[in-house]
Amino acid sequence: MKYQHQQLVHGGWEKLNFFEQMANVGSEVIRGISWKSKKNDLFSRKAIVRALELLDLTIYSQQKYRKLKELTRLRELLVDYFYGQNQYSSTTILWHKYFYSFNYAAIMFRAKKA
Predict the structure, then answer these.
(1) Residue 28 class from Cβ within 10 Å (0-12 exposed, 13-18 middle, 19+ buried)?
(2) Helix crossing, 18-37 with 65-83: angle to 10°?
(3) What sections of the chain are H helices per DSSP?
(4) Is the pTM of this model over 0.90?
(5) CA distances from 30 to 14, 25, 60, 75 (A)
(6) How far is CA 73 from its chain centroid?
(7) What is d(CA 84, CA 79) in angstroms, rounded to the nearest whole number?
(8) How far is the C-alpha of 51 from the C-alpha of 53, rounded, in Å?
(9) Could you state, in order of their start, the residue ranges of all structural domains in the chain?
(10) Tens digits of per-residue pLDDT, 9-51?
(11) How far is CA 39 from the centre of its chain?
């Protein structure tokens, strides 16, 4: 399989903390939503492929069952929203709220370390 994020696949992803990983996933999801709203399906799908790739790297790097359950459910919801029938009734507002919290946590984590 050819990965978009070659450096991250080869060990770079594990160097990021969980909040930073999820903030990066969220960045791609929000980018995909933005392109979708502009009716650019090609760019939207490319962003979501990148988001799913990063989410898969996050799933593979996690050892805690509690996080794995949420992450795999998140993957299911993203695939349903972008590729399926949106049977879970996800909205852009939901995605913004969900991922915003990880951006905030990543910023706070970095500030705490400094």
Answers:
(1) buried
(2) 10
(3) 6-7, 18-37, 41-61, 65-83, 92-113
(4) no
(5) 22, 9, 22, 14
(6) 12
(7) 6
(8) 5
(9) 6-113
(10) 556 788 899 999 999 999 999 999 999 999 999 999 999 999 9
(11) 21
